[in-house]
Design a protein that fits this description.
The protein is mainly beta and about 800 residues long. It contains 7 helices and 53 strands. Helices cover about 10% and strands about 40% of the residues. The strands form 17 sheets. Strands 1-7-6-3 form a 4-stranded mixed beta sheet, with no helix packed on it. The protein has a 4-stranded mixed beta sheet with strand order 8-14-13-10, with no helix packed on it. A 4-stranded mixed beta sheet has the order 16-23-22-19, with no helix packed on it. A hairpin with an 8-residue loop joins β51 and β52. One of its GO terms (biological process) is homophilic cell adhesion via plasma membrane adhesion molecules.
Length: about 800
Amino acid sequence: MAAARQVLCLWALLGVPRVRCEPIRYSVAEEGESGSVVADVAEDAGLAPAQLSARRARIASPAGRQHFRLERGSGRLVVAERLDREEMCGRSRTCTLAFELLLADPLQFFPIEVSVEDINDHSPVFPDERVTFKIPERGDPGSRFPVGAAQDLDIGSNDIQAYSIIPENEFFTVFIQSENGKFIELVLEKPLDREEQPEMDFTLVATDGGSPPRSGTTQIHIIVMDVNDNAPVFTQKVYIGHVLENAPEGSVVLRVVAIDADEGVNGDISYQFSQSVGHRHSLFTINSKTGEIGIAKPLDFETEKKHELTVQAIDGGGLSSMCNVIVEVLDVNDNAPEIMVSSFNSPILENVEPGTVVALFAVRDQDSGVNGEITCALEEQLSFALRPAFKNYYELVTVRTLDREERARHMVVVTAADAGSPPLTSTHTFSVDISDVNDNAPAFNQTSYTMYVHENNAPALLVGAVKATDADAGPNAKVSYSVVPARGPEEEPCSCVSVNSESGGVFVLRPLDYEQLRQLEVVVSAADAGSPPLSSSVSVRLLVVDENDNAPLVLHPSAQDSSPPSSELVPAGAEAGDLVSKVVAVDADSGQNSWLSYQLLRATEPGLFAVGAQSGEVRLRRPPTERDAAKQKLVVLVRDNGRPPLSATAALSVLLVPGSWDAQLPQQSPAAGEDDGSLTTSLIIALVFVSLLFLLSAAAFVACKVCKRKELSSGPVLYGASSVQSYVADGAAAGTLPHAYCYEVSLTTGSGNSEFKFLKPVLPSLPAQHCSTGVGGAHAEENRNCVGLDIDT
């Protein structure tokens, strides 16, 4: 046993530094008052009193009852309640109370043993207050008469040390028999004479060895009888019986036998228990005729392993004798192991290191031998393990890193089993809660977000929401949102987008213009409330949806407020389908909002002209006639495809060039020519004058057109350079800008007919007929109508 203890101590010193191998031992006298100081346990344990409070020191007893308490301020161990050694330990030679001094942060405990010393606080007590003996006269000197021994609950020197007779007489002395169990006998020293003294009374006194000594008495009454020569004699001085602790009531343990040599009434023997202090006799019964000793009440090996009884045999003449009966109770496995928790820490942080002590507990089994051998195990547990600590103590420790998000509570079941047959088990469940630490950053439910907002939106418009969740708990899972710079902290975040810090709602703070900003991208951060906080970010792409908020802009013909509409020339010989002009317009919107359609809204001669619905080309529907007015005014409606549609108008002025409308000059005969020579000369002069006037008017008209085009190229810009470039590019892509058209007009004199030659469109590669005009400083090129006049005089 000592070698096993040394091995356990060596293991504890090497593997469990928190455990003190040898217990701290103290002694204290029983019956001490509550609050009596036992010792300075802090000093003996090598601890400062301040450590006791800081580390929450306390006393833990496996039995559950606290006989002592710890004064944390002074470090003293004091008595918590009155100690009665006889109540706690009975007549055991040693009475040791074992408990532990537990400290936390880190977990450490010191075993302590306090020996309770006996004081002389009990007087001897005889089984009976009065004992009567019937002794025959002329009895032989040396005859012995047994008397039930007195009992003293104290032990050692405080137990009974001597017996005496008061008053002393010449007939009896006291003999103490202690060879096979202590009992006393009265020894007859001188024969009695019934005729002289038929009865006799004296006091038997038992005295202990305490200081001062205590004593107990019983009255002895002697009745002198006629001769009964033989007293009963037991076949054995000591009877020993064995019985299982779970034997049923009424079971016979053993039988005592006494023999009396007398005959008749003097030979009739009856058996009885000699009255004694305690409850032992109440557990057994004895048959007064047969001497069989049976079980009266259930026995318990753990309460008392051995019972000592005194049986007295009395014959009919009053003579008696005594024997000792020892009943040994045999242990059966009727007690399951007990699990007594001394310390339990819950909840624990999820980031604790493997090997952290969660609980400290002790196990015990009141059975003995193999029935009291205990093994402990965990049921299907991967995160925790049991580690032996000291004697019957175990530590519940972690074996790996815990994760609260994976499992927030562990139900750890400890099973203690003994080695009995069949084995008995008991379990204890530790509910270990895992406290959260901030080890998870918020996670968005999408890798990126795309949201849409219509231009010209209302301020502070909600356009969507981002959502992030945090697998942690409590404040560590509370997510707040914010807009952060996309390229680092030195960059200012976007001022036109905001996010609600609690709900994640994304708001556009001011109206947006599709023509200026078609999309933007912001970075939204989600941060938890942990310490330190963890965060993650996501990209939010905001697309501006175009609204039909821009009416078509007519680029040609120019419609300045202070200038008259531009004029186009149509020769008299033009045919149906010939191009007169082209209305060029753009729309700053995009998509279907920029699709333009053209419609002839008003005309001097509605049946003379037609407008291409998609191209904006103004063509002749039929050849002009002399009935048509020379100046035609057209109003072309340009409309986009938005909902609702927006429109603009372009005013055109068309001049029908005068000339012969399929009429031939009359043929004159030579005679008539001679007769009308003067008239012809007048007509020629008039024609030349009219031709010169027309040439001057045409030259002035061409000069005016050139000036207007210069003003258009250098005039005020309605949109920015980049916008107009975009608009013209969009218009070209949509097919609303034309190729170049060139007209060649040839006027001749000296003939009977004026010829107007209308040419087909020519490719813009001809350098003489290509006009490039920069609008608003942009690099977009716009093809214009070029008019070439070739006057042949």
